[in-house]
Amino acid sequence: MSVTKQLIVGVDVGGSKINAVLADPDGNIEARSLKDTLAHEGPDAVIGRIIEAISQLISGADVAGIGIGVAGAHDTQRGVITSSPNLPGWHNTPLCDIIQREFNLPTYLQNDCTLAALGEHRFGAGVDVDNLVYVGLGTGIGGGIIADGQVYTGTSGAGGEIGHMIIDVNGPPCKCGSSGCWETYASGTAVAREAVRQMEAGVPTAIRRYAGGDVNKVTAQTVFQAAQDGDYIAHELISRTAYYLGVGLVNLVNIFNPELILIGGGLAKMGSLLLDPAIEVVRERAFEISAKAVRIELAQLGDDVGALGAVALVLQKKCGTDEGE
Amino acid sequence: MSVTKQLIVGVDVGGSKINAVLADPDGNIEARSLKDTLAHEGPDAVIGRIIEAISQLISGADVAGIGIGVAGAHDTQRGVITSSPNLPGWHNTPLCDIIQREFNLPTYLQNDCTLAALGEHRFGAGVDVDNLVYVGLGTGIGGGIIADGQVYTGTSGAGGEIGHMIIDVNGPPCKCGSSGCWETYASGTAVAREAVRQMEAGVPTAIRRYAGGDVNKVTAQTVFQAAQDGDYIAHELISRTAYYLGVGLVNLVNIFNPELILIGGGLAKMGSLLLDPAIEVVRERAFEISAKAVRIELAQLGDDVGALGAVALVLQKKCGTDEGE
User: A60, A124, A176, B304: which is deepest, by most CB within 10 A?
Assistant: First the structure.
């Protein structure tokens, strides 16, 4: 039986949710299992929930394979999660082997942002686009690269760490051990940090209200809510973030000369408030030929981008990239 | 007749020299024509000299095609030199068409640093390396990318402009119109600029002697000579350059997770004095998995890297990348 008649399981293991889907090779979702990750319970409990979610989906279905996406650095050749910012306690966890043995189905693992690029390229905004960079703006900044129509992950599968481009050689420390990284300026964490700094300096802002007066509850989301409410400080914070977002995008445009950059992740919900000024920076500072060639847009697949990317990964591994499209 | 029996012409049109070679498909140079570019005489005169050099080489030879490398931004699809820092007065010059019509041979054009990557990948330090970044350190910084065994140039052929990564968001203006670009910190121009700054501040240094007392004659080369002579200031200037070189390399390592980064161009002559401290920065600041995976070495093909890269371009275009190896 051709794989194009079979279904595929895609699992996105996030910090708060496990989103598992059963989809056809065109990316149509036929069933879904959504569970809380409860990552603090550790690897065994989370793996148990991943297995449970997959079991619910594949019962009675003709399944070609399982794709899994997890944030962080992985040895994708061996299917091992080296470490993940979302999954405390996971170190060199052989997730692929465990799932493959449980279900006796081909199983593949990939970084979540690489899967997002793959998902958008196969089913979303990036169909028929040869050169595409996906920028995942969340608590950090992750990246996924499609180069000449193929997913690019580098020699150890660890490429695409665009959030750790140094954009300010004199910048503050980053949790990666370097300093001045893009994600210290343009991530959700950076937005929240700067908002707290303003609040602690006594600057009057509606962010305080949206965070219930508690600086520990300030997130990029509360800043965005305050900005939508017309708060000047919140607006300024988002403008600042957009500027730094633009600086990093200039680098990606000059290096990759891509046709498309897709912005996804939690901060993408800020939409044009974040994107328009960032695009302006690219128009001003990137090489003209590359700035003209690139479209910078919001990703399309929303919360399913990781799971659908995992579906696309299975299709790619099992049938090459051209079949089933 | 198979192309592997034929010879190929590779031409590197530099700011000072036109280096044209006739080579076999293994990169063995059978004949050479080296001429002064005399770029100030303008496009017509230079094109005349390029034609003359090629004519001398192909007389009586069975030639499969001609490859040409020129620094700068090109429309490689149409074979047009959009602009070149080495060739004043060249704007949208259809060099490929002119050469193709003159010799009635397939002719291909590419950016010099992309050709350097291709040349090293086919004939030099990068044979059998799938993921490779070539860093050309000259008056500016150029780049060439091999991704998954294929040359990567992006959507308009303008990718690889790694010298215009912003590494200091508060940095000084760059001639590209942006600011804080890598090449404002780690190019030959940057070395010379900082040396002049020290001299103008009255700091005693042997650089002055090597430049004949004339700040206009200070180059990266005079700074290197002074450093070899034990001059402290010259040493410090090269250490500073190496540090910034390392910062940009961190970005390339995190983004591409390459197996190999090759350092070429005029500054590569500084060897380990420049390279060792830069590698140290990569070891300290790049992601461990990628830092461990990468070798950072000097390019091998020296002054012929552009011409041999142009030969490799013809082989790639005419036979695909796998034949003739």
Answer: A124
Residue A176: closest CA among chain B residues belongs to which residue?
B287
Identify which of B58, B6, B51 has the alpha carbon closest to the alpha carbon of residue B32: B58
A212 phi-psi bin (left φ>0, alpha ψ -120 to 50, beta other): left
pLDDT category at A82 given cuts 50, 70, 90 is: confident
Amino acid at the residue B92: N
**What count of Cα atoms within 13 Å lies in the side-chain half-sphere of residue B259?**
14
Pairwise CB contact (< 8 Å): A154 & B290? yes
Task: Provide the pLDDT for residue B1.
Answer: 43
Residue of B153, B157, B293 with shortest CB distance to A156: B293
Block means of pLDDT (10 residues each) for chain B, length 325 residues? 72 93 97 95 95 95 95 80 83 93 96 96 97 95 96 93 97 95 97 96 95 94 96 97 98 98 96 97 96 97 95 86 36
What's the full length of chain A, in residues? 325
Q: Which domains, from first to last, does chain B contain?
A: 3-119+303-319 (3.30.420.40), 129-299 (3.30.420.40)
CA-based radius of gyration for chain A:
20
> A100 near A106, Cβ under 8 Å?
yes
Distance, in Å, from the CA atom of B17 to the CA atom of B318, rounded to the nearest integer, reads: 27
Check if A255 contacts B (Cβ < 8 Å). Answer: yes
Interface of A with B in 39-78 (CB under 8 A): 73, 75
Buried b or exposed e, range B129-154, using 16+ CB within 10 angstroms: bbbbbbbbbbbbbbbbbbbeebbbbb
